[in-house]
Amino acid sequence: MGELITLDYTSPAMVRRLQRVHQELIIKAFKSKVVPILRIIDATAGYGVDGLLLAQAGYQVTLIEKRPAVAKALQTSHQAGLLHPDTQAACQRMTCLLADSFDYLSTCDQVDAIYLDPMFSTQEKNRLGPRKMQLIHQTLEDTETENYAGLLALAQKKAKHWVVVKRPRKAPPIGEMKPHSQILGRTIRFDRYIPLT
Fold it and tell me: Which of these CATH numbers, 3.40.50.300, 3.40.1390.20, 3.50.50.60, 3.40.50.150, describes 23-193?
């Protein structure tokens, strides 16, 4: 078996981010002054950094990852986080599943909000480092051919309030679907879509 690649949720850098989580752009993207958002599905979980940030902010987060090697790493990081005092509370609000997002969303009940990150995040790449990125290259090849426009449309049917999509700041919207609003950062943005009725 190959080496299992994981992220350390309890590293000093990650703990510092968790301590100031409400400054994170992703948290601002899910804030609503009109309706309470309590439960979120992260339908493209990857190694779980964004899901962990959302859980730290108090949301109940279901993380879906379809690639077995990445899902195993996600679950390993999650289990380790449950044992550490700095990450235990957040990890208790996380549920990590190996599943195909299309299949899961097609059969699940409606949830307050759904999150999509159509790219393997730059932050995760930086945290893994070049050697580990070489080891997981094969597990990430299928992300380029994923039907994200279809996944977004399905998510809009299953979200009660928001679908939030992470994009590079200058990238086009997924499937050229114009978002309802945007939260802009220096290098990334979060596109917010209202549900389809």
Answer: 3.40.50.150
